[in-house]
């Protein structure tokens, strides 16, 4: 079946669409432990100027979407979007919804003169790689590093020495 998607950059009052998108993320991206934020927190996210939630709609139902962050630059205006998450409901995959939300972000970049979009894909995710290439992305060689469970690393405290701040590991007392 061929679908005709409407792309939408969510505005500050579209909490229902954002909730639907986050539910898709939980399901498709396996964010099982994540909790959907409250309406107040959703509205707060939607008001941020440096984040875009773009959805693909089939009627009034969100079938996929992406979250992109406008990265700050020390050299002036932000010029790069980073796609943090992109997902489409199983039934709608390979029907153009993913391509549609990426194209909507590309239009946003052109309209506001942002120079690039950065997105990562695991080498095993052939469908994502194919999608990104089809939408004009160029793969770059390199490594992706992840610091997992950083909350479980030893505790640190900030110590001030001679006017400078240092991090030092808090030693645990042996029992």
Gyration radius over CA: 20 Å
**Mean residue pLDDT:** 88
Gross morphology: globular
Q: Whole-Å distance between the termini? A: 65 Å
Coarse structural class: alpha+beta
What portion of residues belong to β-strands? 25-35%
CATH homologous superfamily identity: Gcn5-related N-acetyltransferase (GNAT)
Strand ordering within the main sheet:
1-2-3-4-5
Number of domains: 1
What's the CATH architecture name? 3-Layer(aba) Sandwich
What would you note in describing this structure?
- The protein is of the alpha+beta class and 175 residues long.
- The protein has a single domain, classed as 3-Layer(aba) Sandwich (Aminopeptidase), CATH 3.40.630.
- The protein is built from 4 helices and 7 strands; from the N terminus they run E-H-H-E-E-E-H-E-H-E-E.
- It has a 5-stranded mixed beta sheet with strand order 1-2-3-4-5, with helices on both faces. The protein has a two-stranded antiparallel ribbon with strand order 6-7.
Question: Nutshell version of this structure?
Answer:
This protein has helices at residues 15-28, 39-47, 97-112, 126-134; strands at 6-9, 51-58, 61-73, 76-88, 116-119, 156-161, 164-169. 27% of the residues lie in helices and 31% in strands.
Outline the fold blueprint:
Blueprint: E1 6-9, H1 15-28, H2 39-47, E2 51-58, E3 61-73, E4 76-88, H3 97-112, E5 116-119, H4 126-134, E6 156-161, E7 164-169
Parallel strand pairs: 4-5
Antiparallel strand pairs: 1-2, 2-3, 3-4, 6-7
Pick out its properties.
two-stranded antiparallel ribbon, 175 residues, five-stranded mixed β-sheet, alpha+beta, Aminopeptidase, 4 helices
């Amino acid at each position: 079946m061929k679908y005709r998607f409407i792309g939408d950059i969510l505005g500050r009052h579209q909490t229902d669409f954002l909730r639907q998108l986050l539910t898709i993320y939980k399901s498709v991206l396996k964010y099982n432990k994540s909790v959907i934020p409250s309406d107040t927190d959703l509205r707060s996210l939607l008001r941020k100027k440096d984040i875009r939630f773009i959805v693909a709609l089939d009627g009034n139902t969100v079938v996929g979407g992406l979250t992109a962050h406008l990265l700050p630059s020390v050299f002036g205006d932000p010029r790069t979007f980073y796609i943090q998450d992109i997902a489409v409901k199983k039934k709608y995959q390979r029907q153009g919804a993913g391509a549609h939300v990426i194209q909507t972000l590309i239009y946003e970049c052109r309209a506001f003169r942002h120079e690039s979009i950065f997105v990562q894909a695991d080498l095993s995710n052939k469908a994502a790689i194919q999608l990104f290439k089809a939408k004009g992305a160029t793969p770059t060689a390199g490594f992706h590093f992840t610091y997992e469970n950083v909350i479980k690393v030893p505790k640190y405290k900030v110590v001030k020495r001679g006017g400078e701040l240092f991090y030092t590991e808090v030693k645990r007392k042996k029992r």
